[in-house]
Specification:
Order of helices and strands: EHEHEHHEHEHEHHEEEHHHH
Strand content: 15-25%
Number of strands: 9
Largest sheet: 7 strands, mixed
Radius of gyration: 21 Å
Number of helices: 12
Strand order of the largest sheet: 4-3-2-5-6-9-7
Helix content: 25-40%
Length: 272
């Protein structure tokens, strides 16, 4: 299939061509006619075309000037009817609250996002004061595996997602479903019931991330050594926390579950 534009490697442009995968994204998004959907990087509009038939409104953010022109022409009617709002800009430079200023209620993110900024996008929207209620995103399979902790080992990335919502695999996507094909396989994941229920205050949220970053700072070290070295708390307090939680003093960060990290954060938070 010939393309109307030359894909830019610098923007991570690999256009999804599979109608089956697009259908799985739409299905997993659980979009109703009352929903507003934010699409990051609409590209040539393959997913956009389906989103606007299901949602009340679609807000699409595209950085590439050439693709903005294509979207404007392809969806001129939807734009005129305010069914599609096209924003020309870099998603990383835009404030989630500003993007969704016209949205009073929850919104959904559904997108084939640039793989090179997956982590930044997740952090930007999951930590936002105006979170989406659900995210269905097409990402690199290796990154999806890390988020889902499919090897049974948690990571900084998996914990940073799971503390806000419930990630699950929707479908694996082979590289042949794109034009041009990427060098890696991909996967669609769904992060559902996004919230900040684990965080009673912004200070608690900040402390949680400080603690997990300290915990994974030196993977070869045991957890308690990492936390002491980062001055998270006095060793005596950490020993009490580990004992109360029945955690081995030799345990490593990757072997703790989310609830263990929340417990540690709570104990450090209440003893400061």
């Amino acid at each position: 299939m010939s393309l109307p534009v030359i894909p830019k490697k610098s923007l991570g442009q690999n256009f999804l061509t599979s109608s089956r995968v697009i259908s799985r994204i739409i299905e997993a998004s659980n979009i109703t006619h009352d929903d507003v959907v934010l699409e990051i990087g609409p590209g040539l509009g393959a997913i956009t075309e389906q989103l606007i038939t299901h949602a009340n409104k679609v807000i699409a953010v595209e950085k590439d000037t050439a693709l903005v022109a294509i979207i404007k022409e392809k969806f001129a009617k939807a734009i005129k009817n305010n069914h599609l709002e096209l924003i020309h800009g870099d998603i990383l430079n835009l404030d989630p609250v500003a993007i969704t200023k016209s949205i009073r209620n929850d919104y959904i993110i559904a997108a084939n996002i640039p793989y090179n900024i997956t982590g930044l996008i997740l952090r930007k929207f999951l930590e936002s004061s105006h979170q989406p209620k659900r995210m269905v995103i097409l990402i690199q399979r290796e990154v999806a595996d890390r988020i889902l902790a499919r090897d049974g080992k948690e990571s900084l990335l998996s914990l940073s997602v799971k503390v806000y919502g419930m990630p699950k695999l929707v479908t694996n996507v082979a590289r042949g479903n794109f034009n041009p094909p990427p060098r890696v396989d991909s996967a669609v994941i769904k992060i559902d019931t996004i919230n900040k229920n684990y965080f009673p205050t912004k200070q608690f949220e900040d402390l949680f991330f400080r603690i997990i970053h300290a915990g994974f700072a030196h993977k070869r070290k045991i957890l308690i050594k990492n936390l002491v070295d980062a001055s998270i708390a006095e060793r005596t307090l950490l020993l009490k926390i580990f004992t109360d939680r029945n955690l081995l003093l030799t345990i490593r960060s990757e072997d703790l579950k989310l609830e263990d990290w929340i417990f540690i954060t709570h104990m450090v938070y209440t003893n400061h």
